[in-house]
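Most newcomers find our protein records easier to grasp once they have seen one. Read left to right, the backbone structure tokens trace the chain's path through space. Once this layout is familiar, the rest of the handout is easier to follow. The record below serves as our worked example for the rest of this section:


***
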Amino acid sequence: MSDPLGALIITAAVVGAETMREHTPYVPYTPEEIAEEARRCRQAGATMVHVHGRRDDGSPTQDRDTFARILTAIRERTDILVQFSTGGAVGMSVEERIEALDLRPDMATLTTGTVNFGDDVFLNSLPMIRTIARRLRALGIRPEIEVFDTAMIDTALRLCDEGLLELPLHFDFVLGVPGAMGASERNLNFLVESIPDGSTWSVAGVGRYELPLAYRAIEMGGHVRVGLEDNIYLKKGVLAEGSYQLVERVVRHSEKFGRPIATVDEARSILRISPDRTL
């Protein structure tokens, strides 16, 4: 008998813009390293990889050529769905953040508000948000609404009223960033209750909250994002040797709970991604 909560989609956030080799030697930098980690995560059970760009020295970039090399390298190795970040890194212009979208990934993120990000500010003015939403709509790319705080849900729904987004939406709740909404089950419950019926959602807990919130999402019928972008440890003091090990942890919990892992085709259907996004 199938699980009434449905198949679980695991997104692997393998690189990000903030995690550096000084933090962990296992974070990938080059397109080939990112693609290899995507392959390992797919083998472990992930159905989507969340991609940021890095230069060889680890500095963040949204350069189109870098993303093209990453996308090609991933698709040569695995059938995993590819999601581009349009957040990039703090301080990037909106045009810089979206220059690679014409490569037509399976999905791309859209953060619908400004948020304190540690000592920095992750700026997303309403005109910037509209610019990204228009580009995604023009290219037919399915957005994932990145929510760091409650008002970002309201802004996403405002964009629906303006015709820039369409319901149902997929939300990703990023909880535990210093300066943003805290990583608690109470906050997760509130956010899930705040989105429209028919929406899908996932959670990305930051740091030590990653796996506990992932396990809770499994039990609530949501989906999960894990990886070295958000958390570098398997447990206190023990580094994960790659995002794939965090994916393995989620798979084991899902199996214990009796919830199946989504295939790529199932993930496409759940997230309403077009059936063929290949170049």
